[in-house]
Specification:
The chain is mainly α and 71 residues long. The protein is elongated.
Amino acid sequence: PPPLPPARGRPGPAALTFVPGPLALVGGVLGLALGGEYLSVPASIGFIALFGIAVQNALVLVNHIVYLIRV
């Protein structure tokens, strides 16, 4: 099944799902820069995990908001 069934045909909720991903990556790069760290292989794996977690959390939040609006 599609990951965002209530948003079918509506671009707003689907677009909100992907907003936190790039923001999390920007925050991660700033965190590396402020901490004086380099982009290493473990940091890259952490970025992949961070991106996935941010998108998953946004998906759950948008689905819950759509559910609350319909109930």
